[in-house]
Amino acid sequence: MATYKCFSCGKKLTSAQLQKRFLCPFCGSKIFYKPRKHLAKIKAV
Ligand SMILES: [Zn+2]
């Protein structure tokens, strides 16, 4: 199951929670992002 983070309040949401309503149940925000476990480090060569 995919997890998302609310961009506004930072709470974790599951994709199941967002299937009903694409709204944050905590703050009503509609902007989410997928938190990544591994942060990609980009090196400018
Ligand atoms: Zn929120």
Q: Characteristics of this structure?
A:
three-stranded antiparallel β-sheet; alpha+beta; 1 helix; binds zinc ion; single chain; 45 residues
Describe the structure.
The structure is a single chain. By secondary structure, the chain is α+β, with helices and mostly antiparallel strands. The protein has a domain at 3-33. 13% of the residues lie in helices and 20% in strands. It has one helix at residues 15-20; strands at 3-6, 12-14, 32-33. It has a three-stranded antiparallel beta sheet with strand order 2-1-3. It is elongated. It starts with a strand and ends in a 12-residue tail after the last strand. The site of zinc ion has 8 residues, from loops.
Describe, in short, the structure shown.
With 45 residues, this protein is α+β, with helices and mostly antiparallel strands. It has one helix at residues 15-20, and strands at residues 3-6, 12-14, 32-33.
